[in-house]
Amino acid sequence: ETGVTQSPTHLIKTRGxxxxxxxxxxxxxxxxxxxxxxxxQGPQFIFQYYREEENGRGNFPPRFSGLQFPNYSSxxxxxxxxxxxxxxxxxxxxxxxxxxxxxxxxxxxxxxxVL
Amino acid sequence: AQSVSQHNHHVILSxxxxxxxxxxxxYGGTVNLFWYVQYPGQHLQLLLKYFxxxxxxKGIKGFEAEFIKSKFSFNLRKPSVQWxxxxxxxxxxxxxxxxTNKLIFGTGTLLAVQP
Lengths: 115, 115
Known about the structure:
The complex is a heterodimer of chains A (115) and B (115). Chain A has 115 residues and is mostly beta strands. Chain A has no helices and 11 strands. Chain B is mainly beta. The model of chain B has no long low-confidence stretch (mean pLDDT 92). The A-B interface holds A 2, 4, 31, 33, 35, 40-45, 48, 55-56, 58, 90, 94, 96, 100-109 and B 4, 32, 34, 36, 42-46, 49, 51, 90, 92-94, 96-108.
């Protein structure tokens, strides 16, 4: 167990709807990253939050947004859902000490199906 | 742009066979390298990592990987696989010195070990 918890584990939405996914980071970690893992693909970096601000973003449109709270937990919001947004969304936490090592601890993911 | 290639998408082995999964990355600078494993129904787990030093690194469950800088490779090996090694394996890199603790993943290799 990594101590990273995500909710919900599964959800189904329809095109055009909005979704919010939640993540609690591992104790002692101050950075949260979100990844999208489509079927048959490796995880792709969406963005990272540190000190409640986005400090890095992958190739995802603005309708993917996030938040980090003072307790380091985080939300991923996706607006105007499209069929291609169907995927496993992974949250990963880490401790940013000023030196990014890339070592991440992943949650079990939220599987989103868009119909 | 950074990228990671995993040569084998699907590997089928019998128990006790030896395993080698290929991984090559594309990046001109210094990197940290990782292998993650995803067992059926479970979260991504760190198998092993290379930051610096001895290019032959040992991980959990008898896995090891060798970093060959001249070949931009980080192949995963295990001398004798078990049925419980059935899982999906992901190679990942992190560019050192970047502002973001971001991992670039390969597309994964699905390993099926037959008893």
